[in-house]
Amino acid sequence: SFMAALHEFAGENEVETFAIKTRAKKGRMAGGAVSFKIETLIQLVEGCHTRFVNPVALSHFAKKEVDEYPEKLPVYLKNAFLAGAYALAKG
After folding, report:
1. Per-residue pLDDT reduced to its tens digit, 40-58
2. Does the pTM exceed 0.85?
3. What is residue 27's predicted lDDT score, i.e. its pLDDT?
4. Do 82 and 62 touch, CB atoms closer than 8 A?
């Protein structure tokens, strides 16, 4: 059902690329099995590319290119916003 929802979302919103912040495979900030499976499903969306963005690149991008964040952007969506902005800016 998640895969179907991704296809529907991508189609309705004309999504061409998904941007995902890469995570460590070990350690405190490591991704869990479920999140890696979700990333795999995102990569399988037909007609969409998936771009993985390095956290260090996001940090540098934020410092140099992002003057401010949208006013009502929740803190937990900051990295998602940055990944999307990075993908749009870097093509």
Report:
1. 999 999 999 999 999 899 9
2. no
3. 75
4. yes
